[in-house]
Structure formats: C-alpha cells, structure tokens
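Before going further, it is useful to explain how the protein records used in this thesis are read. An example of such a record is reproduced below.

***
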Amino acid sequence: MTKGKEVLRKFGGWIYKRINGPVGFFIAGFIASMFFFSFCIFVFNFFDDFIKDDAGKVADIVYYGLIVALTALIAYIAYSKIKNINDAMRTEYLLRIDRRWCSKEMIDARIAIHKIYVKLTDGKWGHDTVLSMLSDKLVRELAGSKKREDISDYIHILNLLDFLETIGYLHAQGKLKTDEITELCGNSILYYSHIFKGIIERRQKRDPGFYEYFTKLAKEIEIDTLKPDIK
C-alpha cells in the first residue's frame, strides 16, 4: 500500500469513527432541527399566501408537500442515527462488563467467596441457608479479621461489589436495559445480591445510598425472571 493510500485509509477511518460517534449525533440533530425550523417557516408562509391569494394554490401545495416529506425523511434519518449510536454504546458497555468480569481482580474476589462457600457446604444445610450464612460470615468474620489473607480477600470482595454497583448505576442511567443485563449476568447478580446482603445492610445503616443501584437492579432482575414467557 502506497503512503498516499495509507493516509487516505486512516483519514477515512477517522471520519467514519466521528460520524458514528457523538459528532454524528450532533450533525444529525442539527440537520433535523434546521429542517424542522424551515418547515415551520414554510407552513406559516403557506397559510399566509393561502389566505391572501388563491392563485397558484396547487403549486404551493405540491411545493410545501415536498418540504414536509423531506423534513420527515431527515427526521427519520436522524432518529435512526441516534438509535444506532445508542445501540452501539449499549453493546460497548456490555462488552466491557464481560471483559471486566473475567479480569484477575474479579476472579480473585469470586475465588475468595467460593472458598468460604465450600467450607459451609458440608451437606447439613440447603443452598439458601448457606448463602445466608455466607453473607453473615463476610460481615462477622472476614470484615473484622486482622489476618493479611483475610484483609486481601475482603478488599477483593468489596471491589466486586463496587463493580456490581457500577452496573446498577449504568442501568439506572438508561445505558443498559434490564433484559440485556439479565441475559449477560442476571443469575450472577441475583446470586451475589444474597451473598452481599449483610455487607449492604451494614453499610446502609450509615448511609442509605450505599449500593442502592445494585440493590434496585437485583430486584428488577428478580421480577423480570419471574415473568411468564408468553410467545
């Protein structure tokens, strides 16, 4: 590839990224706004001419009809552009969540929780009881422990909880839909909502705002999963 073609290729890629990002969003909105403003002016002129002079009514109707059609087309293009951008942003968020979920710090946190879970599953207790005991153990033993390993595990676990709160925040801001999160990691969120119940309640006594987004998301996912699948 010659140097000139390489420059053109990079320039073309740069333009494409800008058009399919915030700049494209701004351009589409600006064009739609300008055409809508022009449409309003033409409508006012149309009715003004319609009242004052009957001559050329047909031509005016055709002319303004074309303006209306063009405005509708531009508005549709702008709407499609905005929808595509929003879909692309949600996809990127989901991909980042998936990558973060598989990162070392998240795996370390899940290992720390699993070690405690395994110690409690000796066959005497049911699954729900074990989760309740695990939640209590995180608060009563791990959180107050002075052992180096326990402190490290607890920090990793809090990091996981903060990450889940971030997912809840993105959902609350409308960046992610409930069904998208449910399909990606819904079961995990419900699972960890039980495990972190003790920590969340402990922290919310000091500040009710602690982990409120994660709590709300878990409740919505639980409701969503209970809905009958009607096809």
Q: What stands out?
A: The mean pLDDT is 75. The longest helix spans residues 57-101.
